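Hi team,

Below is the intake form for Alpha/beta hydrolase fold-3 domain-containing protein from Rhizophagus clarus. Please confirm the fields before the structure is written into the shared record.

FORM ID: S-0412
PROTEIN: Alpha/beta hydrolase fold-3 domain-containing protein
ORGANISM: Rhizophagus clarus
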Amino acid sequence: MSAKTIEQMQEDTFRPNPVLAGVMINEFKINNKYRHEAQVHVEKILKPYEHVLDTEWKDLKDDGINVEWVQVLNDGWEKKEVRKTILYLHGGGYYLCSKEFSRNVTSSIAKKVDARVLAINYRLAPQNQFPAGLQDALAAYLYLLNPSKDAGFEPLNPKNIVISGDSAGSGLSLALSLAIRDAGLPSCAGINCWSPLVDLTHSTPSVSDDECIDYLPNLARGIDHAESQVRKEFKEKAAALTAKIKNQNLGPKIWHDSFDRSYRLEIYAPNEGLAIPYVSPMLAESLGNLPPLLLVTGGDERLRDEVIYFAHRSAEPTKYKGPSYNAGKFEKSPFQTPTNTTLEVYEEMLHVFQGMEHPSTTRCYERMVEFINRVTSALNEPLPPSSYNCISAKGEFGPLKDHHKRVLNWEKIGIVPNITRTEFNITSL
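The structure came back. Fields below:
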């Protein structure tokens, strides 16, 4: 258990990091009308799962989403033929960090890509449960497509927009891309993901590998914090939602017996919702028909296997069909066209290594720039075919190693590991 409370951890990760020289920050709020528009779409796609979710996400407690433009001084963006725009979603396990904390990253992206970055503070757990963060991310995307009259820019062509993030922010980016696809909204140009968290069942081998040297803890064992008001309120609400689900006697739409615990496995979503595709994108019925993807993971990080498995499911959806309890659902999906996917595994690198000074970081940024320029190009040239790459510290490209491929034959995809956990016990209140 962490000695700090959730509130203390959040406060620590809300502090601003420095901005690169030559970059300016313009803070503002996106009006709640965009949240209301997003709510219509979110309610539609979550209709099959609404009975296992609380409705508090619809009760807006503020007057808008805190966001900021991160832009190079005098960039002339408004007059460019291709107004490259990055919608950036920060990481932090869905309960930590902020756009301010990510300014060193977002300002670097703005400079290197020659683009404007819209970074947002989406609502965080446990104060705000799924799908509050998804609603906010979708609201920001809708804002870019149809900005308010005083926004200072004309509506963006979605083919000028790339959604990007790190860790949970990358997971949210992929959840957003699924939501956009499933709601029938205009697709963005591409998705750039660093170390995406795409499996909240934490079912892949690398997550629980005792020999893993990653600084990220074993998420399958859970992360708990010192008792506090937020933790107490979360446990009370979690217990109430669990009781409501049981009393309705409807059962979740997607379920495995490994989800059946006396405690909440995650503070982001209930156990009954862990396999909802917008919670754990890796477990979606299909990962086809998504915009081009650049998926990056460290070779020595805990999330490596889920990123590798996600990449194969998106690039080869007919071959890799997800968890056993979803058997037969892919065949009924209207989204069976392979997604153009580039997977890059950087050897000896850890979770979100892009914050380190290392040759692999430099190479990763270069590849990101190449990807964004390619998918937003006005020339509409064909993209290279999907590929799975292992990149050495020297920048040498090669195929995946044998141990990278083991997850492709893993029979416990989407099944919560049988590891005893006692945190967030909601039956002892």
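SUMMARY LINE: The chain has nine helices and ten strands.

Thanks, M.
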